[in-house]
Structures are given as C-alpha cells and as structure tokens.
Write a structure and sequence with these properties.
With 407 residues, the protein is mainly α. Among the domains are: 54-172; 173-278, no CATH class. Helix content is 82%, strand content 0%. The chain has helices spanning 3-16, 21-28, 34-65, 72-94, 103-124, 131-150, 154-170, 174-195, 200-203, 206-225, 232-253, 256-277, 281-300, 308-327, 335-350, 353-374, 376-406. The longest helix has 32 residues, at 34-65. The relative contact order is 0.03. It comes from Fluoribacter gormanii.
Length: 407
C-alpha cells in the first residue's frame, strides 16, 4: 500500500463512520496525558544539571581552599589527571545512548582541567621540560587524537591540537621546540597516512599541519646548528626534503591534499633556486606563475580537481600582477589587455569561475588605468568616466552571460 492508497482508505473510513475533519485533526494532536510525563522529564533534567553544577563547584572550591597544601604531583594529579579521566569518560558515554548527553559537560571539564595541569607542570620546571614529562604529555595528547578521530569529532581534534600545541611551545626552550616541531610534524604525517582510509575527511588537515611543523623545525635546525646561509639555502634544502617525503606519500596514496602539499614544496624549491641563481624578480615570478597555470589546467581535468580552484586563483593572480609590472609604461602595454582576455577565454574552456573573476577584474582595472593615463585631457575626464562606465557595464554583462552559458 502506497501513500495514495492509504489516503483513499482514510477517506472511505471517514465517510463510512461519518467522522468530521476536525475530529481527525483533534485525534492527531498530542494528548494531554503526556504533559505530566514531559513535565517530570523536564524537572529531572533541571535537577540533574543543577546537581552536576553544584558537585563540580564543590570540588573546585575544595581544591582552591587546599591548593597551598598540595605538592606539585598532587596538583598535577588533581588537574591533569582528573581532566584526562573526564576526557576518557566522555568518550565512554558516547558509546551508550542513555549517557550521550553527559559527554558534553565532561568534555568541558577536561578542556578546563587539562590545560591547567599542563601549565602548572611546565611552570614548576622553569621552562626546561624533562623528557619523561614530554612523553607523558605526548601519550595523553595522542590518546586524545585517537579518540577524536575514531569518534569523528573534528571540534575535539581541533581544540586539543591548538591547546596542547600552544602550551608545549610556549613553555619549552628553543632547543626543545626543534624536537617538538619535527616530532609532532612527523607524527601528524604518520597519523594522516594511518587514518586516511578510515576517516579521511577529518584527518586530511593533519597533512598540512604536519608539513608546517616539519618545515619550521627543519628551518630552525639549519639556522642554529649549521653554517648554511639563510633563508635561501635553508628553504631550498627543506623544500627538497619535504617534497620527496610528501611526493612519495602522494605516489603511494594518490590523495588530493598530498598533491597540493607536494606542489607547494616543489614550487618553493624552484623559488629558492631562482633566487640563488640571481634570476630577476619579474622573470622568476612570470615563469613560476605561468607554469603553475598550466599545471592547474592539467589538474582541472584529473581526479584531483578539488585543488584546481585555489591553484587557478594563485597562478592567475600572480601572472596578472607580474605581467602588468612588466608592461607598465611601455609602448606595448596594450598587450596586457590581450593577456586578460585570453585568460577569460581559458576560464570558459576550463569552466573555472575563480579564473573568470580574476581575469575579468584585471580587464576592468586595466581599462580604468589605460583611460586615466591617455584620455583625461583629450576628451575630458567626465566624458571618459561615462565611457568607462558603459565599458564596465558591457564587459560585466558579457561576463555574466558567459558564466550562465558555459559555467
């Protein structure tokens, strides 16, 4: 029986037993008998919330009153220990439907107590964190990550990463930060590889975070412990190392995020190489941007087209800016208009709105610049403005039509 058959049967029954439409509507409304149960449920929730708040407030008041009598280990246990226990308990509550609502306050308790315990621990050791405490903090943090990834809690993963990262880097010496950068960056990279087939959407940000941490750690290491001239040689070496690392990972796993990071380090390597070779700024950026535009076109027709938009934006913006800098105040500067229109045509072929916006804005801005340079005294600035206005309206209308027809 489908929906139409059910409605027809209801109509037949209503006609047979002479049931009015108002009686049907009244019967469909919730009965008044449910009100006492709803009121009881609401009161139970209210009492539970108030009771939980009072218990937590009492524990906090007791800790504050006796705080001066506790030693360092007792303070860390009361804050970091209880906070970590609350975090584990919150994920256990998520597995039981009857206790899922209790997970949120437990998360908040953990978020308050754990950073407090870490700050206390790090302040007591006067910015020099012993290695065994680093191991304990690392274990706690990665347990957080594992639970967050397995439970698909992106917010928990983000907050814990920010809190733990800020605390560790703020309360450790510069030498220890190198180890933390390299260690955490490489662990992020390994975690991304391990969970990529299980929770790829939530673990994809681990790759860029790992790349940033590793790059910072390697650059700091090279600047402090080697005689390599910074920043060009340092960027060259770091880019080569990370290009090989993420390039091999991309060849093995074929993921879009890895492709973007590999391209980033590939172009940063050549940027540093051109700087060391003494290539002029204009030529350097023109070569890099035009080649990236070609790579963007290739990626746009592959299964990695998710990153084509940002690549089109970066490459076209840099190419248009450096090209204008090259032709500005030259007798052939009108050729810039041909480049901008050519990019509009490319945007239509590639069905790229971002490329179309960049090229259209470049066309309009060049028309405005060219008019202000050569026409203000010939015809008069007011007439020139009117002409520019019609040109802007005309070009905008053409762009909108092209967008509707081809995008």
């Amino acid at each position: 029986m489908n929906k139409e058959d059910a409605l027809q049967k209801i109509i037949d029954l209503a006609k047979r037993y002479q049931i009015d439409i108002r009686e049907i509507a009244l019967a469909l409304k919730p009965t008044q008998d449910a009100c006492p149960a709803d009121q009881t449920n609401w009161l139970n929730k209210l009492y539970s919330y108030i009771g939980g708040i009072l218990i937590f407030a009492g524990i906090c008041a007791l800790i504050v009153m006796k705080w001066q009598d506790f030693n360092i280990y007792e303070r860390v246990t009361l804050t970091l220990g209880f906070g970590f226990s609350s975090f584990i308990l919150s994920f256990l509550c998520l597995k039981h439907p009857n206790y899922q609502k209790a997970s949120t306050p437990l998360f908040l308790i953990a978020l308050f107590l754990e950073p407090t315990g870490l700050v206390i621990l790090l302040q007591e050791y006067n910015l020099m964190l012993p290695i065994w405490w680093v191991l304990i903090i690392g274990i706690i943090y990665f347990v957080h990550q594992r639970f967050a990834i397995l439970s698909d809690k992106a917010l928990v993963l983000t907050v814990t990463t920010f809190v733990f990262g800020w605390i560790l880097f703020a309360y450790t010496a510069s030498n220890s930060r190198i180890i933390l950068n390299l260690g955490f960056g490489f662990v992020f990279f390994l975690l991304g590889l391990y969970y990529q087939d299980k929770q790829y959407k939530i673990t994809a940000p681990l790759f860029p975070i790992g790349a940033i941490l590793e790059a910072c750690g390697l650059l700091t290491l090279l600047s402090q412990y080697t005689s390599i001239l910074m920043p060009n040689w340092g960027v060259l070496i770091v880019s080569l190392i990370l290009f090989l690392q993420y390039g091999l990972a991309f060849i093995s796993n074929k993921h879009t995020v890895l492709a973007f990071i590999t391209l980033f380090f590939f172009y940063s390597f050549f940027l540093a190489a051109f700087e060391l070779l003494g290539v002029s700024e204009r030529l350097k950026w023109f070569i890099l941007s035009s080649s990236l535009l070609a790579v963007s076109s290739f990626i746009n027709h592959s299964k990695y087209q998710g990153i084509a938009g940002i690549l089109f934006f970066i490459s076209s913006l840099v190419l248009l800016l450096v090209s204008f800098d090259i032709v500005k105040n030259q007798y052939y500067e009108i050729l810039y208009l041909g480049l901008a229109c050519g990019l509009i045509y490319m945007a239509i072929i590639e069905s790229s709105r971002i490329l179309l916006i960049n090229a259209s804005m470049a066309t309009l801005c060049f028309i405005l610049y060219f008019s202000s340079q050569y026409f203000p005294h010939a015809i008069g600035w007011p007439i020139t403005l009117i002409i520019i206005g019609f040109l802007l309206i005309g070009v905008s209308g053409i762009v909108i039509k092209l967008n509707k027809k081809y995008m």
